[in-house]
Structures are given as C-alpha cells and as structure tokens.
Amino acid sequence: MTQALRLGLVGLGAVGAATVRRLQEQADLLADRAGRPLQLVAVSARDAGKNRGVALDAYRWYADPLELAAAPDLDVVIELIGGAEGTARAVVTAALTQGKAVVTANKALLATHGLTLGALAAQQQVPLLFEAAVAGGVPIIKTIREALAANRISQIRGVLNGTCNDILSRMAREDCDFPHALQAAQAAGYAEADPTQDIDGYDPAQKMTILAMLAFGVALTPEQVKRSGIRHLTRHDVLQARRDGKIIRLVACATQHADGTIHLSVAPEMLLPHDPLAQLQGPMNAVIIQADLVGQLILTGAGAGGDATASAVIADVLDVARQGSACGNPFPVKLRT
Ligand SMILES: NC(=O)c1ccc[n+]([C@@H]2O[C@H](COP(=O)([O-])OP(=O)(O)OC[C@H]3O[C@@H](n4cnc5c(N)ncnc54)[C@H](OP(=O)(O)O)[C@@H]3O)[C@@H](O)[C@H]2O)c1
C-alpha cells in the first residue's frame, strides 16, 4: 500500500469523538477503500482532561489548534469545532494557507466565508470538503456537486433542521405547546441549551445558502434568506393545521426562476400529508431537488448526530485519500452586480 494519509483533527465533541471512533474501529476497511491507511496523528480540543469515550493516547495533543494546523507532518486538517468566526475560521484558513487539505462540518463558516475559503483552497490547489456541513449523514453536497453535475437545478426544498422537526412532530404527537416540546427535545439531546440558531431558522438558512451557491453557481449570503422560525407556533396552530388536514414543518427553499432571479426562504409551512417533507418524524432531514435531466430527486436520512455526521466527514477524508475530489474552488460562483 502507498503512504498513509496523515490526519489532524480539531474538536472532539459529538462529531469529533464519533469520527475518531470510526477511524479506530474500521481502520482496515477504510484503508482498503482509501487505497492507503488513514493515520490519525494529532488531535486538539479545549479540555485535555475530558473523557470523550475514545482512547486518545496514541495521538499528539495540541492545546493550541493553530499549532496543529501548522504541523508539517499532516496532510489533512479536520475542523469540528464550529462557529463562523474565531478559532474554527483561523484553523481552516491556516491549514489551507499551508497547503493542507481541509475537511469541515461547519455550516456557519461555509455559509459566511465559503467564497473566500474556496478561493484560497483553489489558489493553494488543495481540497476544501464539507459534506457534513448540510444535513449530517445525508450526502447532499456530493449529490449536487458530482452526481447532478450535468443538470440545471431549478429548486431545492428541504427540512434541514432536525431540532425543529423534532419539536414540531412532538407538538403534534403529544398535543403539547412549544416550550414543553422544546424541553423534551433538549432532554432527548436533539436541542442545544441555547436553541436560538435552530428555532429561529438561522441554521437552516446557513445550510440552504450553501446548497443554493452550489446548485446555482451564484454568490449568496445567509442574510438574503427570508427567514422565520418556529418559536411563535402554538399548540393551537398545530391543532388547527391538523383539522385542515395539514402538517406544519419548517421548510427551507431555494428557487431559481426562469429570469435567473433567486429566492431563498426558511419558514414554517402547512403541508399536505403526502408531501415527503410532512412525513418526516423526529430529527430527520430530507431534501427534494428539481433538476432538468433527472426530474425530482429526494434524499432522506439522519440530519444530525455524531455517527451520521462522522459518516460524511470520513467520506470526505476518503475522497482526499483517493484524490477523487478536484482541488478547485468548491464554490465556482459568479458574483452578481
Ligand atoms: N452535532 C451534530 O449533530 C452535527 C451535525 C452536523 C454538523 N455539525 C457540525 O459539526 C461541528 C462540531 O459539532 P459538535 O456537535 O461535535 O460540537 P460540540 O459537541 O460542541 O464539540 C465542539 C468541540 O470543539 C472543541 N472546541 C470548541 N472551541 C474550541 C477552541 N477554541 N479550541 C479548541 N477546541 C475547541 C470543544 O472542546 P471541548 O470538548 O474540550 O470543550 C469540543 O470538543 C460544528 O460545526 C457543527 O455545526 C454537527
């Protein structure tokens, strides 16, 4: 076998720990698929003493993730910290600047700085891959960038936030009000202590911005998404929808009209029961793509969770190992004037 692909991983939370576990438990299988061993060399997080449920003694520990990004013996930096600014942005920028491939799950970073980082990756001739940034384990980025590359896409519509879907399906199932459903989602680990990003629709707006840039080849920002969330919805709204034969879901949508204009939105919608988005229960995600050659394509699956997201992270690492993904700019967009 050829030389190992040497990995550094920053962020050992839900996704980072699941990624390390999979790299450990399926090393032989992954090496076979990569055509070379995947060797995790270095890791970094804030707290060196925290038990993360995986053995880390075999790896070099960096208290400063920027030092990891600069380590000369790494080929790939995997960024799993999160956030559009601060350490995550600095780590990704430093790694690309130093000619390393980057794999990230960070939708906030990509939606806000994807164009700049994509241009940097292209300039450095290294891959910047982010399958895990949208819809967790659902392979929507590869589907748009690779599988549908011959198509013109006119619309992407989806449920991209598992937290909101869990809350809305609980409100209907348990006939309860929003605060109760939010608490239950938090207890089940589907909602964060501060749920603002999810319930006010910022998270699906970032995800749809990324998908729309890839699908339409146009520079967009999350601020262009007409956004409303679900915190104002009441038990009465859900009941009324049911009486009308409808189901409420938080739907993200990007449409390119015939004249080229693009409309981006995130809003609760009353859906007919046969709509594939209406049928999603709990923290599931789904994306429906309308494309000229294939017609309608629907992808459904686990939009979050450590294991599902690690699946997407490692698929990107395998792409780097096989040099399957072009080193070009992942966002070859036209800037609109
Ligand atoms: N969780 C999901 O289901 C999911 C799904 C899709 C995408 N994502 C994305 O995946 C990324 C990671 O999410 P997560 O849920 O795994 O987050 P998380 O559980 O909160 O873990 C974040 C990790 O980053 C580390 N970290 C935070 N700030 C740091 C800093 N300044 N320097 C070094 N390390 C730092 C933390 O260290 P300590 O542990 O020491 O505090 C922790 O290990 C995010 O971009 C998120 O949007 C998550």
Q: Can you describe what's shown?
A:
The chain has 337 residues and is of the alpha/beta class. It contains 12 helices and 12 strands. The strands form 2 sheets. It has a 6-stranded parallel beta sheet, sandwiched between helices. The chain has a 6-stranded mixed beta sheet with strand order 8-10-9-7-11-12. Strand 5, helix 5 (107-124) and strand 6 form a beta-alpha-beta unit. Helix 4 (86-97) runs parallel beside helix 5 (107-124) and helix 7 (162-174) crosses helix 8. The chain is globular and about 60 Å long. The mean pLDDT is 95. Bound molecules: NADP nicotinamide-adenine-dinucleotide phosphate. NADP nicotinamide-adenine-dinucleotide phosphate binds at residues 11-16, 44-47, 50, 65, 80-82, 87, 105-107, 132, 136, 304-305, 309. NADP nicotinamide-adenine-dinucleotide phosphate binds next to helix 1.
Write down the secondary-structure element order. EHHEEHEHEHEHEHHHHEHEEEEH
Overall geometric form = globular
Strand content: 15-25%
The stretches of 5 or more residues where confidence is low (pLDDT under 50) are none
Bound molecules: NADP nicotinamide-adenine-dinucleotide phosphate
Report the C-alpha radius of gyration, rounded. Answer: 20 Å
Strand arrangement across the biggest beta sheet: 3-2-1-4-5-6
Helix content: 25-40%
The CA-CA distance between the termini, in Å, is: 50 Å
Overall pLDDT level? 95
Q: How would you name the oligomeric state of the polypeptide chains in this document? A: single chain
Largest sheet: 6 strands, parallel
The DSSP helix count reads 12
Structural class: alpha/beta
Please count the beta strands (DSSP E, at least 2 residues each). 12
